[in-house]
Amino acid sequence: MRLNYLLLVLLLAAGCATRSPQPSSRPSFPGDALITQRAVLTARGKQFTLNGYLSMSQTGGKRLLVTENFGNVLADVLVKPDGAVHVMRSSSAFRPAHIKRFVAADLECAFGNPKKKCRLDVLSPTHFVVKRFWYKLDLRIVDVKPGPQPAGMFDETQAMP
């Protein structure tokens, strides 16, 4: 009996020693940059691996291209400095309405000025998690290339090559 009690106390003490990540401020990146990301989207008990290529302009424009592992484009979204969202390309995996409502919101949550309160857990300067009611997006920054991006990247009338 005493051994079980001692084991229970040790397990409880060990559990108290670890902390869950606490939400903190958003990471900062250069105003002009190309950011390469890897992500794991967990939704409804399933996990999907994604790649992201984010172009940011000093003026506040953001262009995100989301691809699957084999390079097929799942979403291409442009967020203008005034917050206007333009879906440049969609797929069967991400419909235009979902891109506007969720992808653009997560982009603003992690890299911009979110319109609504969002849950962003910053685990390190290159690793953070966006949590929503029915999904979680685990993002890792792979590479940041500072420097001006082509102006056409932030023009809603021009498609990406």
Please give a structural write-up.
- This protein has 161 residues and is an alpha+beta fold.
- It has helices at 2-17, 96-111, and strands at residues 33-43, 46-56, 62-67, 73-79, 85-89, 119-124, 127-131, 135-146.
- It has an 8-stranded antiparallel sheet, covered by helices on one side.
- It is globular and about 40 Å long.
- Mean pLDDT is 84; it is low at 1-23.
Task: Output the CATH topology.
Answer: Lipocalin
Order of helices and strands: HEEEEEHEEE
If strands are numbered along the chain, what order do they take across the biggest sheet?
5-4-3-2-1-8-7-6
- Distance between the first and last residues' Cα: 70 Å
Secondary structural class: alpha+beta
Strand content: 35-45%
Q: Count the beta strands.
A: 8
The tally of helices reads: 2
Specify the CATH architecture. Beta Barrel
Q: How would a textbook summarize the main sheet?
A: 8 strands, antiparallel
Q: Identify the CATH class.
A: Mainly Beta
Mean pLDDT reading: 84
Q: Point out poorly predicted stretches.
A: 1-23
Helix content: 10-25%
Number of domains: 1
Rg computed from alpha carbons, rounded to a whole number of angstroms: 19 Å
Protein topology:
Blueprint: H1 2-17, E1 33-43, E2 46-56, E3 62-67, E4 73-79, E5 85-89, H2 96-111, E6 119-124, E7 127-131, E8 135-146
